[in-house]
Design goal:
The structure is a homotetramer. Chain A is mainly α and about 210 residues long. Chain A is about 75% helix and about 0% strand. Chain A has two domains: about 1-60, Homeodomain-like (Arc Repressor Mutant, subunit A); about 70-210, Tetracycline Repressor, domain 2, CATH 1.10.357.10. Chain A is built from ten helices and no strands. In chain A, α5 runs antiparallel to α6, α6 packs antiparallel against α8 and α8 crosses α9 (about 160-180). At the A-B interface, α2, α7, α9 and α10 of A face α2, α7, α9 and α10 of B. The structure holds a DNA duplex (21 and 21 nucleotides).
Chain lengths: ~210, ~210, ~210, ~210
DNA sequence: AATGAATGAGAATTCATTCAT
DNA sequence: AATGAATGAATTCTCATTCAT
């Protein structure tokens, strides 16, 4: 039994699982120490593995950081894709699900938010970070704008500008996430959700309640 | 003679001016290289001064960073204080001035935005950074809420919740700043201002135009 | 069936063949990357085998390097032994064959020359390397001196000092090899051979032509 | 006194002197440990300085090594230049001086020879090393060939081929240096000089004695 | 006998800080 | 007050070696 347990812990893990394990440790460490202070030693210790393991699986620290950002981006995006392509949902339901998702436990996990904003803070000096997210950001904006446009016609909202609403909602969500990260005692997830809903209610009063 | 020569040299600059010179260099360098990559050498080179100068004036790198954050915070805050305490402005005018200020050249200078978000990204791991801003953030929120409350009564906006509006506006501004920082080609300052105004117009339609 | 499959696999190769395969890869890699930069990974990759194989067959990197030097030394020596002990050759023919051999394709293979000089360069700090060659160097010198002494009496060359000629020829050959290694475009094998012959012609003009 | 000594040892040394100090330590360390085993720590310890000093003065280990090779090359070359351009010497005297120089204490210092051959051994894989020496090697060969050509006409040596003699002498000198490096007990400097002279005597018997 | 993921000691390099000038 | 060469702790990365499979 002991042997089996041992072999399970060190050898029989797939390369992909080991990479994920390291990415998880990286997320935790960035949240704890900050992007400018995390060391490889922090990460490997957190993962319970040896010093050299990161270079074995990711070649360099920089590549590990990039893969970590990509992991979080992909995770966020895939959640939204499922919602957008769900044939059972009406337009309004999709929007509601989108917002619910934006303020769900998975997304507003403070460790992940810390990673998000750590990377945003470095974006100006490291365009690579932006390029990782650029595509999905554009995609999500396009999907959301489309949903707003559909709801505009479905609900007869002549004054709504779907693009403006999308930009405004997106910025609002970003700002609320920042609030959730930096003032966890000030703003609760539920409140953040309510704030987002409050804005949507100003645009589509027949479909959403503040 | 020696004194004259002396005063003409670099030594003639006051300690305060030297500190500001270094803070300015720090802002530029954080924007260019990112908080996690700036070195003291970058900063002193940018300032055209010698290696050891930062330790002379700020004791340590960490203290220089803190003073830099404080400098930007104070600068932002003092601009808003002037607006809030301007006896010549009506409530609506103060709000307009506030928003105009939030998206003015001084504030949305990309170097300064980069510094802002660099620090936000480290906030979770370095509460000191947050503590520098906490007071002024609370103050500004309090002022803004008060303005919204006044306008609510002045304008007969029964449904407006001043606190909610303040939280929403603040988050929206944060999110728009992030957009201005990371996608400078996507969102222009003027548009960001319009988005903010669009939100205020939903709350106070008689006073603001989308 | 399993046995057949087995024998067809990599395991069917004898340990000795595996060792030679690794030594060949080592020669190639030292030539390509330099003794100070070759890694075990380079060598095993070049050999198309797995990481751990060297330690299995040679215990350590150092031992592989020593065996590689020994391989090249033995190869060189055995060629000369054949010539020296060839009963069909006259003294002069043996000397000619020796020189021809010294500048033949087998010996002046640039990969092998690179290995030779890589080891010579480390000799002062690693006397082991020297000790591997010391015996055969002494043997060859002894044989060559003997040949020169025989030719001196056979040809009536009163002024020739066989030992001096041997030292001079040996140094000359070393120097020409170095030239062939470092300036392959400057000195061609045929020219190097001519230079060596030119020297021998000064000592034994009746037997060798410049 | 102690203070003066201290300041002299650490601060008042010029950058150039510090670089030379490090190069000298590098020569000693390469000789002692071999090019493939020297570490920066060996070098800085040998120089009695701190870890970071090499990167301060040479940026990287590789550059230090290159500068070390260049130092030895320049040193050798400048000695020969002086001889070649000495107006007081006849052609034969210049050649004699050249050879005397080639086997003088300065040149056949075993530490420096070890460095020479350490680099030659890496030449195939690092063309940079060769490029550092290429120019001066060509220059020296050109000078020496010219001297041999002059002596040929001065002394009426119809059969001498100056270029061939130059190639042969140069290779011989290289080979003798290698001997001096690897078998210090076998070949003495004086003997090596004699061997070189022996060869020249075969070409210019009226001017040189074996 | 062979593999290759994992290890961890050791190397080069970086950089905040110090201090003689 | 200012300089900048020097320091040395800390960090990333390398790579020979091990060992479960």
């Amino acid at each position: 039994m002991a042997a089996a347990k041992h072999s399970a812990s060190k050898r029989s893990v797939s390369a992909q699982a080991r990479r994920k394990q390291l990415i998880m440790a990286t997320i935790k460490c960035i949240a704890q120490k900050g992007l400018s202070a995390v060391t490889m030693a922090d990460i490997t210790t957190e993962a319970g593995l040896s010093q050299g393991i990161v270079n074995l699986h990711f070649q360099s620290k920089e590549k590990l950081l990039i893969e970590t950002l990509r992991y979080i981006s992909d995770e966020y995006r895939s959640g939204l894709d499922n919602i957008f392509h769900d044939p059972k949902k009406t337009t309004a339901e999709k929007i509601t699900a989108h917002i619910r998702y934006d303020f769900s436990r998975t997304i507003i996990d403070r460790n992940k938010l810390a990673v998000w904003f750590a990377f945003w803070g470095e974006t100006k000096s490291r365009p690579t970070y932006l390029s990782i997210c650029a595509d999905y950001i554009a995609d999500i904006a396009s999907n959301l704008t489309q949903l707003f446009a559909q709801l505009k016609t479905e609900g007869n909202y002549a004054n709504v500008d779907p693009e403006l609403t999308c930009v405004c909602y997106t910025a609002l969500a970003d700002g609320l996430w920042l609030d959730l990260l930096v003032t966890p005692k000030g703003l609760k997830p539920k409140q953040a959700y309510n704030v987002a809903m409050h804005y949507l209610a100003t645009q589509f009063p027949d479909h959403f309640q503040a």
